[in-house]
Amino acid sequence: MTGSANSAEDSWFRRFHTSPEAKARLVCLPHAGGSAPFYFPVSRALTPDIEVLAVQYPGRQDRRHEPFLTTVDALADRIADLLRGRDDLPLALFGHSMGAMIAFEVARRLEAAGTAVDTLFVSGRRAPSRHRDEKVHTRTDDGVLDELRRLSGTEMDLLGDDDVVRMILPVVRNDYGAVETYRYQPGPPLAAPVVAFTGTADPVASVNEVRSWGEHTSAGFELVPLDGGHFFLTRHQDVIRRYLTDRLVDKGRAHV
Length: 256
Prior knowledge:
By secondary structure, this protein is an alpha/beta fold. It has one domain: Rossmann fold. About 35% of the residues lie in helices and about 15% in strands. It has eight helices and seven strands, in the order H-E-E-H-E-H-E-H-E-H-H-E-H-E-H. The chain has helices at about 5-10, 40-45, 70-85, 100-110, 140-150, 160-180, 205-210, 235-250; strands spanning about 15, 25-30, 50-55, 90-95, 120-125, 195-200, 220-225. Strands 1-3-2-4-5-6-7 form a seven-stranded mixed beta sheet, sandwiched between helices. Helix 4 links the parallel strand 4 and strand 5 (about 120-125). InterPro entries: AB_hydrolase_fold, TEII, TesA-like, Thioesterase. Belongs to the thioesterase family. One of its GO terms (molecular function) is hydrolase activity. Pfam families: Thioesterase.
């Protein structure tokens, strides 16, 4: 790879732990307003068997001076470009909420270019074909904050200090805009199997809407409902870790 390619990878992917003997690679994509460190616990738990690359979108944290990418397609294009041709390890994708939509579009692009995807793991997001007319990104700052509070509930301290949250509102608004203007374009189903995790009380992704992910794969689908709201995954990390390990490392083992 050229120096510029390596620089781009360093910008987009965070490798929190080295895994020289990893059996698979998992690329994790954050939710709207989220950043790569959200997946630090996942990386710590899966090392050394799985190499975890957490995506850092532009416009936040150490990339705060870079311009936003304003559409799901633009984000998917860039990430797929960087992952294309990686065949030294089985490659899987995990995305929560907005990250699930981007992961799906990345998987489509990779498969179209001949790069296999082992498994697509999606979390907290209805299927691409299940559209809701949402316009959170057009609300006032207080309106966006109200939505964040509604989704975080008691499961995750997303908000912290209001002054800090207001500083990241441009990031959140951009990401909501990307998700809410996304429109699924019909195409061939994925060759990769899909595992969909969902909170049984998620206000923005009903179990039936999440079940429709099964329509987007020809290789098998599994729905995993778990107690909780939109950020159910923070209380079910062990369950999700077992699924990831089972699928990517110990393929023959039954779930526990």
